[in-house]
Write a structure and sequence with these properties.
Blueprint lengths: L9 H23 L6 H18 L3 H7 L1 H21 L3 H7 L4 H10 L2 H10 L2 H15 L2 H9 L1 H23 L4 H4 L4 H24 L7 H5 L7 H40 L3
Helix pairs in contact: 1-5, 2-4, 3-4, 4-10, 4-14, 8-10, 8-12, 9-10, 12-14
């Protein structure tokens, strides 16, 4: 059955199961408190949630391990599409509300606000470094020798997929944080657009290189066999196109959202003095 995991993972069960339960409970708590979550935010969260789970813990993962272009769809979802949808839903307040009240919640809150967590988080989220890590992970896992080892080692394969997903969440939260940059002292909208360009252009170049390369860069799929009878070059070209075009389109869409927020903030600034 398609929905059954190709390779069972307790990490996926705990992460997605726990997150889903917290969100459902948080929705109910907020609704009872008189501050129900807007429908569009609920839709964005569950769409991103289902997409991420589907490519990581269903039979889709089988095809991702035996077809290069399916693997690129998997990472496109984890690093871009699902992460963008989840962060656009701004789920943190809901997840916090869903956590049962008590000593455990207090301990977790204190731990998250401690210097041990906050200092590394701020370093990782320093915009130039965040952008470098974001695009660097794509290049790193697509280095032929690294990719070869990752596809043969189940632990390394899991590290590859989870690192892409978690980094996507961190990066797109930096970009899509809905708080006012002035009030919350977060990254300005203009700088966020620059960061998107910073990570998009190298990825476009990488995708173009994979598409136009005459060499068979990822021969691991020849060694292990492909799930479908497709020529190695065609598989590589499709994977290169998916690395090249869709991420650029998503980057443009996010920039449109940021421009809209920038205009909205500008209008509010003009209205206040009057």
């Amino acid at each position: 059955m398609y929905l059954l995991p190709y390779e069972f993972s307790w990490l996926a069960v705990v992460f997605f199961g726990g997150t889903g339960l917290l969100f459902v409970r948080g929705q109910r708590v907020l609704a009872q408190a008189g501050t129900p979550l807007p429908g569009w935010r609920i839709a964005l969260f569950w769409l991103g949630f289902v997409l991420a789970y589907s490519v990581m813990h269903t039979q889709f993962d089988y095809f991702a391990q035996f077809m290069f272009f399916i693997h690129r769809i998997q990472h496109l979802v984890l690093h871009h599409l699902a992460a963008i949808l989840l962060m656009a839903s701004n789920p943190w307040k809901v997840l916090s509300a869903g956590f049962p009240e008590g000593r455990t919640k207090h301990i977790v809150a204190r731990a998250l606000s401690s210097r041990v967590i906050q200092i590394p988080y701020r370093i990782i989220q320093f915009p130039p470094l965040a952008g470098f890590i974001f695009v660097g992970l794509i290049f790193f896992w697509l280095m032929p020798e690294v990719h070869f080892k990752a596809m043969l080692s189940q632990p390394l394969y899991l590290v590859m997929n989870w690192s892409m997903f978690l980094d996507g969440i961190l990066f797109w939260w930096l970009i899509l944080d809905p708080r006012s940059p002035v009030r919350a002292k977060t990254l300005s909208f203009g700088k966020r657009i620059i960061v998107i360009w910073f990570v998009t252009v190298p990825q476009l170049g990488l995708g173009a290189y994979i598409v136009t390369s005459p060499a068979n860069l990822y021969d691991i799929y020849d060694l292990c066999g492909r799930a479908w009878p497709i020529a190695p070059h065609d598989d590589q070209v499709l994977g290169g196109v998916l690395t090249w075009i869709p991420p650029g389109m998503m980057g443009v869409l996010v920039m449109v959202v940021l421009l809209r927020r920038m205009l909205h903030q500008s209008e509010q600034t003009k209205v206040r003095p009057a």
